[in-house]
Amino acid sequence: MRFNRILLSATLVVVALVIQVSVLGRLQLPGAVPDLVLLTVVALALVYGHTSGALIGFAAGLVADLAPPADHAAGRYALVLCVIGYAAGLVRPDSGRFRSAWGPLLTVVAAAITSTLMYAGVGALVGDTAARHVGLTGLLLTATVYDLLLAPFTVPFIMALARRAENDPLAVEANAGQAKTADVSSGWVAGGTGLRIGSQRGGLRLITARNRANRAGRIRGVKGVKSVKSVKKL
Question: Where, per UniProt, does this protein localize (predicted)?
Answer without folding.
Answer: Cell membrane
